[in-house]
Amino acid sequence: MLMSAGGRVIGLSSLGSHRVIPGYAAVGVSKAAAEAITRYLAVELAPRGVTVNTVCAGAIETDIWRVIPDGERLLEAVRSRTPAGGLVTAEAVADVVFFLASPAGQPIQGQIIVADGGYSLLA
Q: Which of 37, 84, 97, 115 has the maximum number of C-beta atoms within 10 A of its C-beta?
């Protein structure tokens, strides 16, 4: 293995990994697979001192919403029902990745960390 002890593997996912978003099937399925491999690799690589985690981001305003059918309306619906009052930013997701990559993230292993401003908490 090329990665040394103390290494970090950090994947990126989205809520489409476990929620159905119209027009997002190919991406959603790939994100679900990424989350599954996170758990398997975490167990396999832990004895070598490598942590494996994934950050599952909420809706971030990007061009993808213009491609998804009715995407801009869906994005506004997410924005309006997020408890934190707005969308997650790319910078906020990067901060979570930075934390996981830091020494403070060492004890976190095999987790899917949801960073969505609380959106996924609501039924």
A: 97
The question of whether 24 is a catalytic residue gets the answer yes
Residue 1 pLDDT grade (very low, low, confident, very high; cuts 50, 70, 90):
low
Say how many residues make up the chain: 123
Predicted structure pTM score: 0.89
Q: List the catalytic residue out of 13, 21, 24, 53.
A: 24
**40 flagged as catalytic:** no
Q: Which of these is catalytic: 16, 17, 21, 31?
A: 31
DSSP 88-115: PPHHHHHHHHHHHHSGGGTT--S-EEEE
3-state class (DSSP) for residue 41: helix
> In the chain, where does DSSP find H-type helix?
25-45, 64-67, 71-81, 90-101
Distance CA 100, CA 46 (A): 15
